[in-house]
Specification:
Number of domains: 1
Shape: globular
Radius of gyration: 14 Å
Number of helices: 3
Order of helices and strands: EEHEEEHHE
C-alpha cells in the first residue's frame, strides 16, 4: 500500500520516477507497494499539468484521483525536455494551499531547486483514470 505524500518527477538527474518522502525510488519490488497503484501514477506523466500549450514552469493543475489530491505542473529545473513535469500526490482531499504546503514540507529539497512560484492554474475534481478499467464511483465516476 502506498502512503504519501509521494513525488513523481526528477531527483538529481534526468528521468521521471515515483519517490516517497525519503526520496526512495518506488517500484513494484518494494515490499508493500501495489504494482497497480504504481502503474496508474506513472501513466500520468505529462498528462496532469495544464494542457494549454504554453507549458509554463510552475503553473499547476489540481486533481483529485482515487483518494489523492494531486498537484501537477511543468518543471524543467532538472530535465529541460518539453514534457518535464513534477507531480505531488497528497493523501485525501485537500485544498490547493494545504496540499502544496504538505508537499513542501515532505519534499524540501525538491522545492529548493525551483526558481519559479508554483501557482494554481486550474483544477479537475473527477477521477479520469480508473484503476483496472473500472469506473471509480467513489471519486466521481470514470471516463
Amino acid at each position: 500500500m502506498l502512503d504519501g505524500p509521494l513525488y513523481f518527477g526528477c531527483v538529481d538527474r534526468v528521468g521521471h520516477h515515483l519517490f516517497d518522502k525519503r526520496l526512495t525510488m518506488l517500484s513494484s519490488t518494494v515490499v508493500g507497494v501495489d504494482g497497480s497503484q504504481l502503474r496508474w501514477m506513472r501513466s500520468l506523466d505529462g498528462v496532469l499539468p495544464p494542457q494549454d500549450g504554453l507549458r509554463i514552469d510552475g503553473e499547476a493543475r489540481l486533481h483529485v484521483l482515487h483518494g489523492w489530491t494531486v498537484i501537477a505542473f511543468w518543471d524543467r529545473s532538472v530535465d529541460s525536455r518539453p514534457n518535464s513535469n513534477s507531480v505531488f500526490f497528497i493523501p485525501g482531499v485537500k485544498p490547493f494551499e494545504v496540499a502544496l504546503a504538505m508537499a513542501r514540507e515532505a519534499f524540501p529539497s525538491v522545492f529548493a531547486r525551483f526558481t519559479f512560484e508554483v501557482r494554481l492554474k486550474g483544477w479537475e475534481l473527477a477521477s479520469l483514470f480508473p484503476i483496472g478499467g473500472q469506473e471509480d464511483t467513489e471519486n466521481g465516476g470514470g471516463r
